[in-house]
Specification:
Blueprint: H1 17-44, H2 54-59, H3 64-74, H4 84-95, E1 97-100, E2 106-107, E3 111-118, E4 123-129, H5 133-154, H6 161-174, H7 177-190, E5 197-198, E6 211-215, E7 220-221, H8 225-230, H9 235-253, E8 255-257, E9 265-269, E10 276-280, E11 286-288, H10 291-305, H11 309-318, H12 325-333, H13 337-342, H14 351-361, H15 365-374, H16 377-396, H17 402-422, H18 427-456, H19 460-469
Parallel strand pairs: 5-10
Antiparallel strand pairs: 1-3, 2-3, 3-4, 4-6, 7-9, 8-11, 9-10
Helix pairs in contact: 1-5, 3-4, 5-6, 9-16, 9-17, 10-11, 10-17, 11-12, 17-18
Amino acid sequence: MVAAGSRAPRLCFPRGSENMARKALKLASWTSMALAASGIYLYSNKYLDPNDFGAVRVGRAVATTAVISYDYLTSLKSVPYGSEEYLQLRSKIHDLFQSFDDTPLGTASLAQVHKAVLHDGRTVAVKVQHPKVRAQSSKDILLMEVLVLAVKQLFPEFEFMWLVDEAKKNLPLELDFLKEGRNAEKVSQMLKHFDFLKVPRIHWDLSTERVLLMEFVDGGQVNDRDYMERNKIDVNEISRYLGKIYSEMIFVNGFVHCDPHPGNVLVRKHRGTGKAEIVLLDHGLYQVLTEEFRLNYCHLWQSLIWTDMERVKEYSQRLGAGDLYPLFACMLTARSWDSVNRGISQAPITATEDLEIRNNAANYLPQISQLLNHVPRQMLLILKTNDLLRGIEAALGTRASASSFLNMSRCCVRALAEHKKKNTGSFFRRTQISFSEAFSLWQINLHELILCVKGLKLADRVLALLCWLFPAVL
């Protein structure tokens, strides 16, 4: 294992390359057998359908209006036949849209989205679940479980059953579009103080578990620099906005949108104000953090940002990392252990460091597998979210800026102060905590100002003056 302050050693597989080749061949054989066995099982149970498989399912078109009609018709089962309510609901099936675009705006494995216009002139986005996705999802999970068990037999050091457990838990949540609508409303209310965030409004009167109607909002994907340049949108501003949104979700509220891939995050200029705006789509997958996890995670990031290595170790271990805490810190920050020790906010990641991380990642696969199997399940989606956000930052060329770390630190300070105030009955103590919080936030603001001054390369006398006025902070 790796001690704090030391360089993590390069790890190698203990067996020779010849033995690994035999294992790879054995894995291929086991995989073929698993696929064959699964196919025979599905066929014998009359479940096999070529259109069920993911690669086909993603690309195929569905008769969208028929699906909507089906969902509305099935809802008639609980309404008395011939009643006024029955007649009103049935009329919606045939008279729902003034126009409907058959070509989807976007298609994924679970659903696809179409643009439509209601008879009152409102333009809406219609998200329609693929007809067989519910039945197919159980087969996909079964096949995944068989393959994971096969890999486990060949490579006992790899622990991937957590992947199956997470799929079993999360997939049913993503299949309920009414829950997705409630998530959208919750996060919209939760972050209403961010005037740069737009969450499309849900049309509840026209939505079901398999069909979701929402306000149509256009824009360019968040990783499309050409779109931003054409529309004069500042990529650095967008990166800051995105960091603020997710820091608030994770550290302050503990309610985290866990699928921020570029297709779900749009940018645009508000037609009224002309200001840049982020549009957050697809609210099916959220992670609700326990208070204990959220506070430990706050402490950990504070320690990483301010290079307090003893507390990095302490809070990493509280989150299940054990002796693998250096690897855990590197996974969270996507930085080398040397950079973590020097301070991740001190210098941005270089191409050399990035290449080193990528090249060495394969050597740590057994340790990564062990770590993912031991951290709290809440951490898994957080890690996925972190990786997606870093991908966006890399595409925008704004990765690992000091400003983003300082925004995170502000949220951590606020979250920890709020927790302390909530757990004390003393007015004097609450006042003391509030003053300490205000002072910490002021220190962060001053530190950001210094970085800005340094970045603009202003006169040395300005820096000297600030250093003389605030020596403890600087």
